[in-house]
Design goal:
heterodimer; B: mainly alpha; 3 domains
Chain lengths: 192, 192
C-alpha cells in the first residue's frame, strides 16, 4: 500500500501557523500538495484547466476551514476530499446549459478549454492513447474517478474511500469493473 | 484451490497489494498454477501503465501564489481590518509585558517591606545595614502617620476643646454634641 499522507512535526507546525492566519506557512503546504490535489480534481472533472481552477478553490476553502480540521486525521486526505467534493459539485453544475448572447457569449467561448488544455485528450497522440481515452469516456464519472485516483494519482483504497466517501467494497467493485472494460479494449487492440 | 471466477474478482486488489496477507498468499498460489489468471493480471498492469502514460503534468508555476492571492481577496474588508487591529493589540500587549512585570515586582517588594511579619523575617535574614536602608524609606511615611495620629489623640483627650454644646433635659443623662468632628457623647449617671 502506498502511503501518501505525511503529517510529521513539520507539517503539524505549518498547519498550526496557517490556522493563525500565516499565509506563508499555508503556501508551503500548497506547494507540497498542489500536484496531487490537481490530480484528484482532474480524475473527477477530466479537464486540466478546470482541474487547476478547482484545485485552487479547494485550497482556499481548506484555508478558510482549517479550524475544523482535526489534527489526528490525515491532512492530505482531508485536502483531497475537499477537492473531490468541489469537483463533483462542479461536474453536476456542468450538466446545466446557459444560453448566452452577444459579448457574453464571446467571453464565455474564450474561456472554453482548448484541446491542448485537456491533458488526457492532448496525450492521445497515437491509436492506443485514443482507444484508452475513448474507453475512459465510456465509463461513468464514478468509475473513471476511482481508476484514475488509483492508477494515475496512486491513492490507496483507504484514501479513495476517504476522498470519495464511499465504502471500501464500492471502491473495489468500481475498480474491478473499470479495469475489466479497459483491459478488453487493450486486448482487442493488441489482437487486431 | 479457489476457482478462477473467484480469483478474477480480487486480481486488481492483488496487483495493488490491498488484500489481507492470507488472501495474497492464496492468489499467489493460484497464479503459480493458472496461466489464464496470470494473463489477466498482466492485462491489469498494462491498463495502469497506459493510463499513467496518458497523464501530462500540468504547469503549476505560480499556483501557490494564485491561491494566496485568492485567500487575501476572499477576506472581507471589515474582517481584514478587525484582524489587523487585533494583531496590533496583540503586539502592544507583548511589548507592555516587561513593564507590567517590573511594576508588579516593585509592588510586591513594597508590600513585603511594609508588612511587619515580613519585617521580622527580614530582621532574621538580612544584615542590619541592608535592613536599615530598606526601612529608611518606610520610616518617613511612618513618622508622618504618627504625627497625624498624635494630633487626633490630643484632641480626643482634651474634651473641653471638642465639646461645644451640652444638651440635657434629664438630670441623670447628659449629651455632648460636637458638629465640627461629627461626634456625639451620651453620658448616663450611675444608679445609686
Amino acid at each position: 500500500m502506498r502511503n501518501l499522507g505525511r503529517q510529521d512535526g513539520d507539517e503539524s507546525a505549518l498547519i498550526e501557523r496557517a490556522r493563525r492566519g500565516d499565509t506563508e506557512a499555508f503556501a508551503t503546504l500548497v506547494e507540497r500538495y498542489q500536484r496531487r490535489v490537481v490530480g484528484v480534481a482532474l480524475a473527477v472533472v477530466h479537464n486540466q484547466d478546470d482541474a487547476v481552477e478547482l484545485a485552487q478553490e479547494a485550497f482556499v476553502r481548506a484555508f478558510q476551514n482549517l479550524k475544523k480540521f482535526e489534527s489526528r486525521s490525515s491532512f492530505s486526505t482531508w485536502l483531497y476530499r475537499i477537492a473531490a467534493n468541489i469537483s463533483i459539485d462542479f461536474r453536476r453544475r456542468e450538466g446545466r446549459h446557459i444560453v448566452l448572447r452577444g459579448e457574453d457569449a464571446e467571453a464565455e467561448i474564450s474561456r472554453v478549454p482548448s484541446a491542448e488544455g485537456d491533458s488526457y485528450r492532448a496525450a492521445a497522440r497515437n491509436e492506443l492513447g485514443q482507444r484508452i481515452q475513448s474507453a475512459l469516456q465510456q465509463l461513468t464519472p464514478e468509475h473513471r474517478a476511482v481508476i484514475l485516483l488509483r492508477e494515475v494519482e496512486g491513492l490507496s483504497y483507504d484514501e479513495i474511500c476517504g476522498v470519495l466517501q464511499v465504502p471500501r467494497g464500492t471502491v473495489m467493485s468500481r475498480l474491478h469493473y473499470a479495469r475489466g472494460r479497459l483491459r478488453v479494449i487493450l486486448k482487442d487492440l493488441a489482437e487486431g | 484451490m479457489a476457482e478462477c471466477s473467484e480469483i478474477s474478482l480480487v486480481l486488481g486488489a492483488f496487483e495493488d497489494g490491498e488484500l489481507e496477507p492470507h488472501e495474497m498468499q492464496e492468489v499467489a498460489r493460484h497464479l503459480a498454477q493458472c496461466g489464464g489468471c496470470e494473463i489477466e493480471l498482466a492485462g491489469y498492469a498494462t491498463v495502469g501503465r497506459e493510463l499513467r502514460a496518458l497523464r501530462i503534468e500540468p504547469d503549476l508555476t505560480g499556483f501557490s501564489a494564485a491561491v494566496i492571492s485568492r485567500i487575501r481577496a476572499s477576506e472581507s474588508p471589515i474582517r481584514a481590518r478587525v484582524g489587523r487591529s487585533l494583531g496590533r493589540i496583540r503586539e502592544q500587549l507583548w511589548s507592555a509585558l516587561p513593564t507590567a512585570g517590573l511594576a508588579a515586582a516593585v509592588a510586591i517588594l513594597t508590600a513585603v517591606i511594609l508588612t511587619p511579619y515580613a519585617g521580622r523575617i527580614l530582621d532574621r535574614v538580612l544584615p542590619g545595614s541592608e535592613l536599615a536602608q530598606l526601612k529608611s524609606g518606610a520610616g518617613v511615611a511612618a513618622e508622618n502617620l504618627a504625627a497625624e495620629s498624635g494630633r487626633i489623640a490630643s484632641a480626643v483627650h482634651d474634651s473641653r476643646t471638642v465639646i461645644s454644646r451640652l444638651e440635657a433635659r434629664l438630670p441623670s443623662v447628659a449629651v455632648w454634641s460636637e458638629p465640627r468632628t461629627d461626634t456625639t457623647v451620651i453620658w448616663l449617671a450611675e444608679q445609686p
